């Protein structure tokens, strides 16, 4: 009965999103004529940010970013690409549109959320991990900021696979993937900060997360190579958060299941495991686009701090079913948005 209800809710959400129009024209963030390998130092020279804004960004505390900090400071500077990976069963893929709109309404630049060619909000879990890693490398080369990855359901499995691909677990050579032209012949990029040639294998992302990754999706052939190291996180991400729902029959997460292991670092990557309330719904966790519209909920979201006792019981009932996951991911996105912007600004100033 619960799973039928989940599917029904998912279908309603998908219909609503489709009616609103999910795909748009390409966002035009990048100059397609200059989408190839940049010259050393070109990315730093092309960065155009007001000096006063740079100073304010450098003065921010990444662990405590307010709503005003986002609107008045971070949003006026550079932002890293966010790769959203949706689930694989139709029409679940439309639900990550809702989360993309949530991030945009919280202040994240919409152009850094959508595919620069198609305008889509998220990527399919049936894309090859080689293509996804190549896309990540291209965005780092052109943005000067390491991308962030957020995966839901089967998309969470792909997020982990991408990290392992970057670590060279499936080969020591990965082609760069130009979003406008497709696969490139080269397997290296020009590091935008140092100007040195850098293989795609060995690159890292700033942040990645997965919610509801596992269970039934592991029965699919495209996930069989993920079984042995499903919860092993390599050093190709600075910080990783794995989200589990207290009782999630779709992801096989429930008390007493010996197969439902936690994520762990295989090296120096910072790895967190977060258990969401058992009342959360595997399918509809990403349905968050309306949360920022309520001032009370928005204030709660921006005040959230991980690893602390938080109470969402005073929030509207419809918010309580999504707000813990949304708040934790939003906190990490703000943090690494700030860190990546500061890293880029310092590199530009060091280069003169």
**Count of DSSP E strands?**
11
**Residue fraction in strands:** 5-15%
Which spans have pLDDT < 50 for at least 5 consecutive residues? 1-11, 13-28
Radius of gyration: 19 Å
Averaged pLDDT, please? 87
Q: Give the N-to-C terminal Cα separation.
A: 63 Å
- Main sheet overview: 5 strands, parallel
- Helical fraction: 25-40%
State the order of secondary-structure elements, H for helix, E for strand.
HHHHEHHEHEEEEEEEEEHHH
How many DSSP helices? 10
Secondary-structure content class: alpha/beta
Overall, the morphology is globular
Spatial ordering of strands, largest sheet: 1-2-7-9-11
Count of folded domains: 1
Topology, please?
Elements: H1 2-20, H2 42-46, H3 51-59, H4 67-72, E1 82-85, H5 95-105, H6 129-143, E2 148-152, H7 154-166, E3 177-178, E4 182-183, E5 188-190, E6 197-199, E7 205-211, E8 232-233, E9 237-245, E10 264-265, E11 270-276, H8 295-303, H9 317-320, H10 323-350
């Amino acid at each position: 009965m619960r799973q039928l209800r989940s599917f029904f809710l998912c279908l309603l959400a998908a219909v609503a999103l489709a009616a609103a129009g999910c795909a748009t024209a390409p966002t035009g963030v990048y100059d397609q004529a200059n989408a190839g390998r940049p010259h050393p130092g070109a990315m730093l020279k092309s960065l155009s940010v007001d000096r006063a804004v740079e100073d304010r960004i450098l003065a921010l505390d990444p662990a405590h970013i307010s709503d005003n900090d986002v609107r008045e400071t971070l949003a006026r500077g550079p932002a890293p690409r966010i790769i959203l990976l949706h689930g694989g069963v139709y029409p679940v893929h439309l639900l990550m549109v809702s989360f993309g709109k949530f991030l945009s309404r919280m202040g994240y630049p919409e152009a850094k959320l959508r595919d620069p060619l198609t305008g889509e909000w998220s990527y399919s879990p049936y894309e090859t991990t080689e293509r996804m890693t190549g896309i990540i490398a291209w965005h780092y080369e052109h943005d000067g900021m390491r991308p962030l990855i957020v995966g839901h359901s089967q998309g969470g499995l792909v997020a982990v696979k991408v990290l392992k691909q970057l670590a060279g677990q499936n080969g020591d050579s990965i082609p760069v993937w130009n979003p406008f032209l497709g696969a490139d012949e080269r397997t290296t990029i020009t590091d935008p900060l140092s100007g040195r040639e850098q293989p795609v294998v060995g690159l890292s992302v700033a942040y990645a997360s997965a919610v509801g990754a596992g269970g039934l999706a592991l029965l699919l052939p495209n996930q069989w190579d993920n079984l042995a190291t499903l919860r092993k996180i390599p050093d190709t991400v600075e910080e990783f958060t794995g989200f589990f729902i207290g009782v999630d029959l779709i992801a096989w997460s429930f008390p007493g299941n010996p197969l439902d292991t936690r994520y762990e670092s295989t090296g120096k990557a910072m790895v967190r495991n977060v258990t969401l309330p058992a009342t959360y719904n595997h399918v509809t966790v990403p349905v968050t686009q309306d949360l920022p519209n309520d001032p009370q909920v928005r204030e709660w979201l921006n005040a959230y701090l991980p690893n602390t006792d938080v109470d969402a019981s005073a929030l509207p009932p419809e918010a309580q079913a999504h707000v813990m996951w949304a708040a934790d991911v939003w906190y990490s996105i703000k943090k690494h948005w700030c860190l990546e912007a500061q890293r880029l600004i310092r590199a530009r100033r060091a280069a003169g």
